[in-house]
TrEMBL record:
UniProt superkingdom: Eukaryota
Residues annotated as domain EXPERA: 45-190
GO MF annotation: an example: cholestenol delta-isomerase activity
Membrane-traversing stretches: 12-38, 50-72, 104-127, 134-152, 172-191
Recorded GO CC terms: endoplasmic reticulum; membrane
Subcellular location: Membrane
Name of the protein: EXPERA domain-containing protein
A Pfam family annotated for this UniProt entry: EBP
InterPro entries registered for this protein in UniProt: EBP, EXPERA
GO terms under biological process: sterol metabolic process
PANTHER family referenced in this protein's UniProt entry, alphabetically: EMOPAMIL-BINDING PROTEIN-LIKE, STEROL ISOMERASE
Keyword terms of this UniProt record: Membrane, Transmembrane, Transmembrane helix
Lineage of the species this protein comes from: Eukaryota, Metazoa, Chordata, Craniata, Vertebrata
PROSITE patterns: EXPERA (PS51751)
Species per Swiss-Prot/TrEMBL record: Sphaeramia orbicularis
């Protein structure tokens, strides 16, 4: 038996994959705790938004940050350590993450620096009901969606030579789930911002009409 495999489990699931998924659950738990701590008095909708934002920033800083460092200083494939093993596991689904692919690294540098900053500022805006909340929410969501597009589109145009989809774990969990949530949630936040801005516009219109009647 391969020493990396977990006895009694699907051969697709290794010890590294289990530990990697457990690490993701720890990140979710940290986001839940931060949301409860800082956003306990927020509305239900805002608490869900904060949960996502805390998780988003945690992932960008604690996972993608080290990836950028390893890729700029060498490559994930040549690196060692727990985080290197985590990314090497993900690299089984998308080979580009192992070899410092310029497109991937460029997108990730922007993600780690810009998206993390926008996420932190947006958390502050949500918690303190700042007027610029939806400007940041739209900006961050567009950045996340653009990052996802630029991550996969170049490889799709070449016939997906770097994507390995024969393994259900790689296809549905690594490539599917962990990328689709960065499409679904930003999309929902864009819709929420659109609704909020529409409501604000209607209030302003009603206010202007009321002022005209008084005149």
């Amino acid at each position: 038996m391969d020493p990396g495999l977990s006895p009694g489990l699907d051969p697709a699931v290794s010890v590294v994959s289990l530990v990697s998924l457990l690490a993701c659950l720890v990140q979710v738990a940290a986001a839940v705790l931060l949301t409860h701590w800082f956003g306990g008095r927020s509305s239900t909708e805002d608490r869900w938004t904060l949960l996502w934002l805390f998780y988003d920033v945690i992932v960008h800083v604690t996972l993608e940050g080290p990836f950028v460092y390893m890729s700029v200083c060498g490559s994930v494939q040549s690196s060692s350590g727990p985080l290197a093993e985590l990314w090497q596991e993900y690299g089984k689904a998308d080979h580009r993450w192992l070899v410092s692919d310029p497109t991937i690294v460029s997108v990730e540098i922007l993600t780690v620096v810009l998206d993390s900053l926008l996420g932190i500022l947006l958390i502050h805006a949500v918690l303190h009901t700042k007027y610029y909340r939806h400007f940041l929410q739209i900006s961050l969501s567009v950045c996340e969606l653009y990052g996802g597009w630029m991550t996969f589109c170049p490889d799709w145009l070449m016939g997906s030579p770097n994507l390995h989809t024969s393994n259900w774990l790689h296809l549905w969990v690594y490539l599917g789930f962990f990328n689709l949530i960065w499409v679904l949630v930003p999309g929902l936040l864009l819709v929420r911002s659109w609704v909020a801005l529409k409501e604000l516009s209607m209030l302003q219109t009603d206010g202007n009409q009321g002022n005209r009647k008084k005149l």
